[in-house]
Design a protein that fits this description.
six-stranded mixed β-sheet; Rossmann fold; globular
């Protein structure tokens, strides 16, 4: 019986020079209660072009806090974050919004919008006026198609299921980081390589759409040289799709590397306080984590 394809890129040439990091975080710390409670301590993390980087860890390990630091929603107590070799705080908001998209775990939207109107919100950083262009609409419709919602453009957002709403917001983020330049090479140029932060993007999705979302993320890294950081709870999705995994335990990085290097029985046992078995996946060249 034939096996499904493993769409991860071939391993990089070990003798080739390392790509310039898209994002480099060094010595990040974050405390609350006037420094009495530490949520993150001495976190180092590097994101490179064309990489899908997963962050895993038990509840309360600091995953969402780390994401908020990396996106600038929170300021670190200590450490620095360089984005495209420039301190994060020095980037102009509009320029940043054209290249970096953030899919939050929960997005509250109570307006009676059509699905297309929600996706078009992602085009605002690219617009010279408050009126979307035909190109903006075409991009938004294509992004709805890519997330499996073709034909949903006129549906009332509030009547959609939770999973459908999540995919509408993914389409919005995809529309946000899609360049408006019609030149076929524009999307692949270094100036248009996007950076996406996805906070538990599969949490409200069924099995099919979980894989669809991560296939979309993988295609962005492969076809556009994008960098994607995804916070994931499902270790086997991380094993299948991620190039690099960072494991957080009680606010500290306890492992970082390839899925094979990180998803080891002793490492996971310590991080999750739970017995697991790690085998080879029968269909994909990656680990398979089984609860023992």
């Amino acid at each position: 019986m034939s096996q499904p394809p493993d769409n991860r890129p071939a391993p990089a040439d070990q003798n080739a020079p390392a790509a310039t990091p898209v994002l480099a975080a060094r010595g990040l710390a974050f405390t609350v209660d006037a420094g009495r409670k530490t949520l993150l301590a001495d976190v180092n993390l590097t994101l490179r072009p064309g990489e899908l980087h997963a962050v895993i860890g038990r509840n309360g390990a600091g995953k969402s806090t780390l994401l908020k630091l990396l996106t600038g929603e929170l300021a670190p107590t200590a450490g620095e974050i360089l984005l495209w070799q420039t301190p994060l705080g020095r980037h102009r908001a509009r320029h940043l919004a054209r290249r970096r998209g953030v899919l939050a775990q929960h997005t509250e939207l109570h307006f009676d919008y059509r699905a297309l109107e929600v996706v078009l919100l992602g085009r605002i950083p690219h617009q010279r006026s408050q009126i979307e262009t035909d190109a903006d609409v075409a991009i938004a419709l294509d992004c709805l198609r890519r997330v499996g919602l073709a034909g949903y453009e006129d549906r009332n957002y509030l009547t959609l299921s939770g999973g459908e709403q999540q995919r509408v917001h993914l389409a919005r983020v995809l529309a946000q980081v899609t360049p408006g330049d019609a030149h076929p090479d524009a999307a692949a140029s270094p100036d248009h390589r996007p950076l996406l932060f996805l906070d538990e993007p599969t949490s409200s999705l069924d099995l099919h759409h979980q894989n669809q979302v991560l296939e979309i993320a993988r295609s962005l890294t492969r076809d556009r040289g994008a960098t994607v950081l995804a916070v994931l709870h499902d270790l086997n999705l991380a094993a299948r799709y991620a190039d690099t995994i960072t494991l957080l335990t009680a606010g500290r990085v306890t492992a970082c590397g390839t899925p094979d290097a990180v998803l080891r029985e002793d490492t996971l046992r310590h991080a999750f306080s739970h017995e697991v078995r790690v085998q080879r996946h029968p269909c994909f060249d990656c680990p398979l984590v089984i609860s023992a």
